[in-house]
Amino acid sequence: MLPRGRPRALGAAALLLLLLLVGFFLFDGRLRGSASLDGELTWDHNRSACVPLRSLQPKCELLHVAIVCAGYNSSRDVITLVKSMLFYRKNPLHLHLVTDDVARNILETLFHTWMVPAVRVSFYNANEFQSQVSWIPNTHYSGLYGLLKLVLPDALPPDLVRVIVLDTDITFASDIAELWAFFAHFSDKQMIGLVENQSNWYLGNLWKNHRPWPALGRGFNTGVILLRLDRLREAGWEQMWKATAQRLLLTLSTTSLADQDIFNAVIKEHPGLVLLLPCIWNVQLSDHTLAEHCYSEASDLKVIHWNSPRKLRVKNKHVQFFRNLYLTFLEYDGNLLRTELFGCPSQPPPRAEQLQQALAQLDEEDACFEFQQQWLTVHRVHLTFLPLDPLPSEAHDVTLVAQLSMDRLQMLEALCSHWPGPMSLALYLTDAETQQFLRFVEASTVLSARSNVAYHVVYREGPLYPVNHLRNVALAQALTSYVFLSDIDFLPAYSLYGYLRASIKQLDLGSQRKVALVVPAFESLHYRLSFPTSKAELLALLDAGSLYTFRYDVWPRGHAPTDYARWREARAPYRVQWAADYEPYVVVPRECPRYDSRFVGFGWNKVAHIVELDAQEYEFLVLPEAFTIHMPHAPSLDISRFRSSPAYRDCLQALKDEFHQDLSRRYGAAALKYLTALQQSRSSA
Amino acid sequence: MLPRGRPRALGAAALLLLLLLVGFFLFDGRLRGSASLDGELTWDHNRSACVPLRSLQPKCELLHVAIVCAGYNSSRDVITLVKSMLFYRKNPLHLHLVTDDVARNILETLFHTWMVPAVRVSFYNANEFQSQVSWIPNTHYSGLYGLLKLVLPDALPPDLVRVIVLDTDITFASDIAELWAFFAHFSDKQMIGLVENQSNWYLGNLWKNHRPWPALGRGFNTGVILLRLDRLREAGWEQMWKATAQRLLLTLSTTSLADQDIFNAVIKEHPGLVLLLPCIWNVQLSDHTLAEHCYSEASDLKVIHWNSPRKLRVKNKHVQFFRNLYLTFLEYDGNLLRTELFGCPSQPPPRAEQLQQALAQLDEEDACFEFQQQWLTVHRVHLTFLPLDPLPSEAHDVTLVAQLSMDRLQMLEALCSHWPGPMSLALYLTDAETQQFLRFVEASTVLSARSNVAYHVVYREGPLYPVNHLRNVALAQALTSYVFLSDIDFLPAYSLYGYLRASIKQLDLGSQRKVALVVPAFESLHYRLSFPTSKAELLALLDAGSLYTFRYDVWPRGHAPTDYARWREARAPYRVQWAADYEPYVVVPRECPRYDSRFVGFGWNKVAHIVELDAQEYEFLVLPEAFTIHMPHAPSLDISRFRSSPAYRDCLQALKDEFHQDLSRRYGAAALKYLTALQQSRSSA
């Protein structure tokens, strides 16, 4: 049957070519015509639905996108932009991110752990280019960073020819390749593609004595820009915009709309530089927007620009549509974007191949498959999800380190009232839960007031709680010399933060010394406890049976070596020896060993860490005035799912065995005592 | 400037027309040619990306979709299908759902509360048509309901001409209008549009003596069907398929693939009926699928068909891509699909207009705006989210009614062990949380074993917990004459279920009698309570200070009228009088008054209901052996967000005032005592 099909296919190909050519000329003609602005939005939106343009592009072409991003909040915004872009894209992408140190730390970790196939990310240090724009007085809310778009031809690699530049408050509703296709329509002289500004700002009639920067008609909006970098460099772009800006700043004291004022002023002088893009590629939801004239139906919309300071609360006839689109990506599970772009072969992200191999080697039928898979899972990590403003750290400062999921969020306020010092917390959340978390913090005066609590989001994936990985994420982000390794359901003594700093100073512990200060742990079975304000009060409550030593009834081995009897009387720190299953809460130098992240779910996760400390010859010193109290709570969802399962306990045993094999490998004969202890506990169990 | 633009626009329109005509002929030719199968998948997938087809359709054309859906699990599946369809659609839709009683109850409520603009839903009773297919022996997992697709030309309204028929295990990756556009390519004789079957099943060589039903080559898959109903009716479709089926069943004892076998057998005899659709419109992820030959890149994929019993666990090279697409819609917030189809004017859903007006009349600056908005919110409701198999109810049976959100899920197992009887529970969840809930139930042997617990999902929307709306949803679904109105953090006495049934019988309470049986409430401050197994044990714990009467310290008024002192001694039920702020846990006839859903968030929600019972002259009878105990837990996220706010308390006061005004209106002078009580409590506060 094939021979019969072949000629038909050839005929079809010829006709397709004709079709594309017709489409091409049609578009090209219009584009040239519509570059002259006349105050009306002249792009015919009914045309925009035509896709054939895309076919002009080489399949699998690498598309370049540049974004300037600085600070904590913009780093959150840019992720929603990136999610919307990845959702619709079919091409490999190269993101060029011009960032400050804060955004770089966040985004570098995010992309490294996100591991999206066919996405490359390069970082550029905003500080290096600031001096080129910092002389320009600017009152726009985007600040100095808005202006940095002007220096992109200089900042980006010299061999980079085309780039799409985006503001962080952009949401895609279509495939970015359709936007990229407009590069094919630049005439020989054009080098900047822009959408008209959808407000009357540049008409200069908004109020009496309103004097905007010069622009062609309504001017252009710079939230979405297509740049032919090669031509800009050749045309002397840097001299061009600097000369224009300097001249205009003689009479206009400041830019109101940052880079956009300068782009418009240059274009007013050189209108031939610009290709006008259809308005649907930058639908501007500014206050008093005229965007409604741009589209007539939902399918017209390609790119939404939230360029009002009111953001989602902006007034617009179709704001519900826009808001729903935005929320779709805000809450979208980013893990689902880790999808292979099949059809376009691409270099896998770093680590991805080994990971795939390791996962492929697992045996799905193995009873502990879920444990092994969870251990290998690379979780997306968003460091410092909320703004952080840590005080300069003293030498003896201590950060409280803990991890939690949604069901412990309500512990945060109490914890903040007990611990005024810095905290580094890892939160295990879905993308949607991060938004609930945000609203929770915003609604809490206690939490909003704190600027020394770092929240690191580790995105949920897989059935088991990756407790030790979470601890490691939080631990790695502590900025002080010492860390207090706690759990979220413990409230420390009100005085503990000050007492720990004083003790570290008094004991003259340099951060090099291998010491673990033990904070004795107690528990309350009452959920309305009047919290003891001193050791004396605590002892009284203990005697009255209102407090207990931690897990005294179900797991006394966990804290027995702390020697509660001695602690009652102690006036000075005293040294204790490791024993099997010891898992005290400790204060250690930040450089302490990491937790073993193979322990996922519940059980033995802290025990293994204490073994590691002992193996590395950390000295355990119990502090006589320190204490922390476990608050009662219902069992977590994660724990109740598994604790009844015998298979679960078998897998935990297997993890312990592997851990001990590794110990022997690393510490040799010195690790023998741990193995002996394990075997004794097993034979006594 | 306009005159200059006009001729250009006319020229463009002419060219566009040419373009479309070229496209039309091109497609039409290929489609006719490719209807003859040769064992190869002959549709050229590179062509499918061409959108102009869509432009052939009248803008805003109403598209008709028919789905056969029966039972609890298919009702869940169909919602994911509908979400994917709504996500991409730009046209108004009319869904024709052929359902059993279970699916109808679920889906009618769902769509009624979903209120998606430009979606109409009609229901057809599957029972009415079963007799037409029940004579056909069938071994396929879709059962009898699969076969019902054969009777659609008869079952759907006689004036309905075109319909797309979908299986419930379909996921859209594109706009359904693109599929609908293929109706334009039916020749005069064609009446069924189908995709080739992407397995070798019908080739009959899968195993020795494998004898499939007759088909053209690989045959067709009926997961996606375009039907020209008018032509099928005219051609005598019913006689046609019945004759074919009867004849073949003489030699083939049963259908293996339900309706699909019969469709294929008819088509084998009448190949001219069929238009072959491109394979991307039904990418079949069956076991041993050949679908890979169909697509070469992600953008090719239009419709995914999960037609393996393994569903998401099916083996396929690109299964991760398909799974991520499916999960996208499984977890997608359905509220975001309530978006106006602007550009296509359509009748708003029932109630939507009044609702819009009511919402528009609210004052955003009002301190209680959030309360009013929450009250007006229509939450999507998914009744009986999991299969239910209630025993036939006796006259004295009692259903436990309660509501919860994610943070109380871990109470369910304990509750099940305390209450063996039927339960009706409302769960306040996001779409993504419903999946966590599903996994939680699946992982729990206790919960999986229960078939008399109905879970009703009310989808989250808005900042305040709609406690009374949730109670009403659960209450309305109780199937027994009596209901025990409880809260999720209470565990009833182990004997309570039996004791309540016995008491109702003994007291000779018809369901007409206005009586509220009071179950005295206690509280434990210990989270590891050894639960009392008798009243005597409870009293001992009370005397020992291990248990307390409920809220004895913070809110004694709530339960004081129960008269705990009298209860200690009571051997027989005793009557008590209402007093201000009384909020006992009661057993009442199912027809009792509903809760006042204006009370959202926390506070006074049960109190108002008890006032309503008293106003309607319900008699309060305390049962001498009944008790229930509140288990300690951390405060919920919802409560801690608001309880600290004075504005919150002011709004609650305003709600109380409104409630009392309504009471006076409805009960006249009889309601005076409630107002007096309110004023007294206010002056004493």
From TrEMBL, chains A, B:
Keywords: Glycoprotein, Glycosyltransferase, Golgi apparatus, Manganese, Membrane, Metal-binding, Multifunctional enzyme, Signal-anchor, Transferase, Transmembrane, Transmembrane helix. Its cofactor is Mn(2+). Pfam families: Glyco_transf_49, Glyco_transf_8. Pathway: Protein modification; protein glycosylation. GO terms for biological process: protein O-linked glycosylation via mannose. It catalyses: 3-O-{(1->[3)-alpha-D-Xyl-(1->3)-beta-D-GlcA-(1->](n)-4)-beta-D-Xyl-(1->4)-Rib-ol-P-Rib-ol-P-3-beta-D-GalNAc-(1->3)-beta-D-GlcNAc-(1->4)-O-6-P-alpha-D-Man}-L-Thr-[protein] + UDP-alpha-D-glucuronate = 3-O-{beta-D-GlcA-(1->[3)-alpha-D-Xyl-(1->3)-beta-D-GlcA-(1->](n)-4)-beta-D-Xyl-(1->4)-Rib-ol-P-Rib-ol-P-3-beta-D-GalNAc-(1->3)-beta-D-GlcNAc-(1->4)-O-6-P-alpha-D-Man}-L-Thr-[protein] + UDP + H(+); 3-O-[beta-D-GlcA-(1->3)-beta-D-Xyl-(1->4)-Rib-ol-P-Rib-ol-P-3-beta-D-GalNAc-(1->3)-beta-D-GlcNAc-(1->4)-(O-6-P-alpha-D-Man)]-Thr-[protein] + UDP-alpha-D-xylose = 3-O-[alpha-D-Xyl-(1->3)-beta-D-GlcA-(1->4)-beta-D-Xyl-(1->4)-Rib-ol-P-Rib-ol-P-3-beta-D-GalNAc-(1->3)-beta-D-GlcNAc-(1->4)-(O-6-P-alpha-D-Man)]-Thr-[protein] + UDP + H(+); 3-O-{beta-D-GlcA-(1->[3)-alpha-D-Xyl-(1->3)-beta-D-GlcA-(1->](n)-4)-beta-D-Xyl-(1->4)-Rib-ol-P-Rib-ol-P-3-beta-D-GalNAc-(1->3)-beta-D-GlcNAc-(1->4)-O-6-P-alpha-D-Man}-L-Thr-[protein] + UDP-alpha-D-xylose = 3-O-{(1->[3)-alpha-D-Xyl-(1->3)-beta-D-GlcA-(1->](n+1)-4)-beta-D-Xyl-(1->4)-Rib-ol-P-Rib-ol-P-3-beta-D-GalNAc-(1->3)-beta-D-GlcNAc-(1->4)-O-6-P-alpha-D-Man}-L-Thr-[protein] + UDP + H(+). InterPro entries: Glyco_trans_8 (IPR002495), Nucleotide-diphossugar_trans (IPR029044), Xyl/GlcA_transferase (IPR051292). It is found in: Golgi apparatus membrane. The keyword Glycosyltransferase applies. Its main location: Golgi. The keyword Transmembrane applies. GO terms for cellular component: Golgi membrane. GO terms for molecular function: glucuronosyltransferase activity; metal ion binding; xylosyltransferase activity. It is a single-pass type II membrane protein. Bifunctional glycosyltransferase with both alpha-1,3-xylosyltransferase and beta-1,3-glucuronyltransferase activities involved in the maturation of alpha-dystroglycan (DAG1) by glycosylation leading to DAG1 binding to laminin G-like domain-containing extracellular proteins with high affinity and in a phosphorylated-O-mannosyl trisaccharide dependent manner. Elongates the glucuronyl-beta-1,4-xylose-beta disaccharide primer structure by adding repeating units [-3-Xylose-alpha-1,3-GlcA-beta-1-] to produce a heteropolysaccharide. Supports the maturation of DAG1 more effectively than LARGE1. In the C-terminal section; belongs to the glycosyltransferase 49 family. This is Xylosyl- and glucuronyltransferase LARGE2 isoform X2.
